[in-house]
Specification:
Oligomer: single chain
Strand order of the largest sheet: 2-1-3-4
Strand content: 15-25%
Order of helices and strands: EHEHEHEHH
Largest sheet: 4 strands, parallel
Length: 123
């Protein structure tokens, strides 16, 4: 198993729900950690994200760009060389992470963003 950690950060119960869906598909040992912004101030959220992502390497998945979770992650980990932030987390992205954690954290973050974007379609 890869040493790259996965931290899913989202509003309300979204992170836990996404991890629950991943574990229903992949099994209970996904290695993902859920962090919610419910009932915590910005400083508490920042500290929870930092604690879960360190020591790296880690990918921090954020539910949406420019939200409170994204700002908290950026503030605490943007200077950490072995931690990357990927926004717009979705189930396809998390499954790619669980089953294909190979490569460096930079390459993995780029691939996850591409997989997640490719999973969104309109017909």
């Amino acid at each position: 198993m890869s040493a790259i950690k996965g931290v899913v950060v989202g509003h309300a119960g979204l992170a836990a729900a996404l991890i629950g869906a991943v574990e229903q598909i992949s099994g209970p040992a996904s290695g993902l950690v859920a962090i919610s912004n419910t009932d915590c101030d910005r400083g508490t959220l920042e500290e929870r994200i930092r604690a879960a992502a360190t020591p790296g390497p880690a990918i921090v998945f954020i539910d949406m760009p420019s939200g409170s979770c994204h700002f908290a992650a950026m503030r605490k980990i943007q200077s950490m060389e072995s931690v990357r932030i990927v926004t717009g987390v979705n189930l396809a992205m998390l499954l790619e992470f669980i089953f294909h954690r190979d490569g460096g954290v930079d390459e993995l973050a780029e691939r996850l963003a591409q997989v997640g974007a490719h999973a969104v379609t309109a017909r």
